[in-house]
């Protein structure tokens, strides 16, 4: 698929490739009934997620902001559904889709999604009307308890292909992080933030996992 960047002036456009993140302006559903942009999410925020097949709503929680780049631009794949919902992901970010030719749900890279796939929404699998590629500023990667994030009414994974293993494997490997998170907040209260907050860049925890996970879980 060709990439075209519209420019009104002749200037250099710099953007990040190969990251696995969400666009900061997209919205998630809070358990209290409101919505919050991904760029404004905080550790401990109670949110809604969907299970893999989209037939169940799950109470979820933000555990950690794994990557935070408010001032950098990235190349996003934007998927628009037949009912005009939309989500933007960087190329290596994972997303569950229903593959009609295989008659099953798979988690694949955003760059591998085609117009023939279906996105997972609550209680239904929805046709993709359009896939566009664009450059946007601000990309983020929150970690949730479930490993999923319900973005603009569309189910997504919080993991990317940068770990070089499946999303289910990454979710398993992050189990100690989730246990520690819950344990510390049980001991010190729900206002306690167990992990250091990084204002910009990649958090040390996912940086460590990205460096070591492939070697230790090379099946």
Automatic annotation (TrEMBL):
<dbReference type="GO" id="GO:0016540">
    <property type="term" value="P:protein autoprocessing"/>
</dbReference>
<dbReference type="InterPro" id="IPR001767">
    <property type="entry name" value="Hedgehog_Hint"/>
</dbReference>
<dbReference type="InterPro" id="IPR036844">
    <property type="entry name" value="Hint_dom_sf"/>
</dbReference>
<feature type="domain" description="Hint">
    <location>
        <begin position="19"/>
        <end position="123"/>
    </location>
</feature>
<dbReference type="InterPro" id="IPR050387">
    <property type="entry name" value="Hedgehog_Signaling"/>
</dbReference>
<protein>
    <recommendedName>
        <fullName>Hint domain-containing protein</fullName>
    </recommendedName>
</protein>
<dbReference type="InterPro" id="IPR003587">
    <property type="entry name" value="Hint_dom_N"/>
</dbReference>
<dbReference type="Pfam" id="PF01079">
    <property type="entry name" value="Hint"/>
</dbReference>
